[in-house]
Amino acid sequence: MVQRKEKKLVYINPDLLEEAVKASQSRGETVTKFLEEALTQAVKVTAVGYDLGQAGEFFEVMQAQRILGGTFVPLTVLNYLTELACMEKKEQLDAVWFESGRWHGKYLKERFIDAVKALDSFLLASRWDLSEVQIKRSDETLRIRCVSTVLTKEATEHLARFISGIMEGIGYRTVKSEVLKGMIVQDFKQ
To answer: What is the pLDDT of residue 63?
Structure first.
């Protein structure tokens, strides 16, 4: 004998339900199947310690990274290539990181309502292995602090140049930059 699963009635905002109906139709599936899949994924996201807002931000940032030409490279390979480049062409490499950051900043400014908030998610989602990213806004300045226990001195310096470029692309200028192996503290003004 086949046992039937009990069904529950859940109230959903009618506008949201209409959007779910459109999305399910575009995928060629029933709205019930679509919503069950959405809830299954929401439970998975929650089980690994994220809330759904973070998951949505993470997906948007990863999509932006893909559009901007980002790629995942093993950290040991990146560190090796960085060390080689720094031996002969450190200034040129610094300039490339800065310009790449400016391009990313322009994109973030155009793509997201709050480019600075998107930067926070972008840095955490990117493969810098940052254990902490903190962005504090005060009256006139914006302070960014990044911490990583695995970044080399060179990689930390390049990340700082990249962040300075991003902030310039968003519309800020660097007023202070402290860089130690694995730690960056930078202040910016608009």
So the answer is: 79
- For 115, counting Cβ atoms within 10 Å of its Cβ (0-12 exposed, 13-18 middle, 19+ buried), the class is buried
Rounded Cα distance, 20 and 61, in Å: 23
Q: How far apart are CA 45 and CA 122, in angstroms?
A: 18
| Cα→Cα distances 35→26, 48, 56, Å | 14, 20, 16
**Cβ neighbours of residue 114 closer than 8 Å, sequence gap 6 or more:** none
Give the DSSP H or E segment for 175.
strand 173-180
CB-side exposure of 24: number of CA atoms within 13 Å? 16
Helix 14-27 to helix 31-47 angle (10° resolution) is 100
| Nearest one of 63, 61, 43, 64 to 52, comparing CA atoms | 43
Q: Report the percent of the chain where pLDDT is more than 90.
A: 34
For residues 38-44, average pLDDT: 87
Most confident of 83-92, 120-129, 150-159: 150-159
**pLDDT score for 15:** 92
Q: What percent of the chain has pLDDT over 70?
A: 95
Report CA dihedral (69, 71, 77, 78) to the nearest 10 degrees.
Answer: 50
